[in-house]
Amino acid sequence: MPSTAKARIADIEQRLLLDAIYHRYHYDFREYAQASLKRRLQSALTQFGCKTLSQLQDRVLHDPPVFTALLQFLTVQVSDMFRDPEYFLALRNEVLPILRTYPSIKVWVAGCSAGEEVYSLAILLAEEGLLERAMIYATDINPHALRAAEQGIFDMDRVAAFSANHARSGGRSSLSDYYTARYGRVVFDKRLREHMVFSDHSLATDSVFAEVHLISCRNVLIYFERDLQSRALGLFHDALVHRGFLGLGSRESLRFSSQAGNFDDFVLDDRIYRKKAGR
Amino acid sequence: MTAAASVSRMPAAASPWEAIVIGGSSGAIDALNTLLPALPADLDAAVIVVLHLVRDRRSLLVDIFRERCALTVQEAEDQLPIRPGHLYFAPPDYHLLVDQGPRLALSVGEPVYFSRPSIDVLFESAADGYGEKLLGVLLSGANGDGAAGLAAIHAAGGRTVVQAPSSAAMPVMPQAALARQPAHEVLTPGEIATLFAQLRTPRLP
User: Do B105 and A33 touch (CB under 8 A)?
Assistant: First the structure.
């Protein structure tokens, strides 16, 4: 069979698998960026010992634990604490001075994965003396990731990189002030977790659940096709207070979205946007 | 060398490629210095480049090659439509993929061969998107990234070129690609530049 025909069949199988997942489990990956999804599905095939996505579809439909395992492949994200330190520096210097004027501060980390960004923001707020009146809503579609995030446990061998990033983000303290190390892992303090709420939420199928002052959603939209990106950005617009802030990943932008007109550039270099007045 | 002979036989008015993907690691910048200035300003294809880089916020590649290349040189961004006559560099610390459209897409998936961006990730997605309308070029480098990707381009019917290991500062990457698929053409940077220079092919009216 010519390889192009094989590639087209694989595309058909991928669409059918995503349809099957949606109808059976109500997780909607149909508007995810297909190239990246395809790559992750290919590694899933190896993992599950399936030759084709059709074979995988059969198992996913009839064996729920297979879907639970597949979800790790479909949603797993790799992040670091204080990834892109300049972003956190810009939040510290430009955004928090404005949020400081509110009696209480609500932050939404959309697509929090294993929680690296949630703990980074909590530490940032603590250093700026704002954690006591802050609440961070951390959401993801992957229950396994949410449980991990809630525990706040990370491998010790990642911490040196986290600390270096933290220092470059303008950190006013030592990262080690916020965790205890044991058995090759670090556990972040309960006093940080007291200001976090973790919950299951899908940017593809759920609606707004709270009014917030800052949304941080970095390197999540890159996994979405353009229409789904616009849906998510629409949710963010609805969730933000008047003149609230939105932070995206360093190579994401509002430029190609139908929501572009609803936000002003705030710190464009660090992809921080602000909800337009009167919208 | 037979491969070089096939280059000189290339008809000057044939550009069957919609895109050229280039990958490399240690020693590849030297090769790019020879290749990229040879690309004609009216190239009817897009060029997408992944180099292994230190994880830093900003890549200097765009600044370096903007002056030396006739194409519009820019850093890849998520959702950017891929346009002929443009050259895109993968940003540091993201995988770069070709998605439907064709558009550029980014991911922060696991590093491949300890690298993000990975050459395999770009090449495999481009092979999928462009099929036989793709030219893949793998340059100097010190690991096996790109071998699977170049083989995927070959399997999809695209044209595949590796830098002659003898001309590479780090021959491991070209050698790994040839070990996996011996049918790739083997060319020096000068010969690849000649191939590129012959790509001046505005579509017939």
Answer: yes
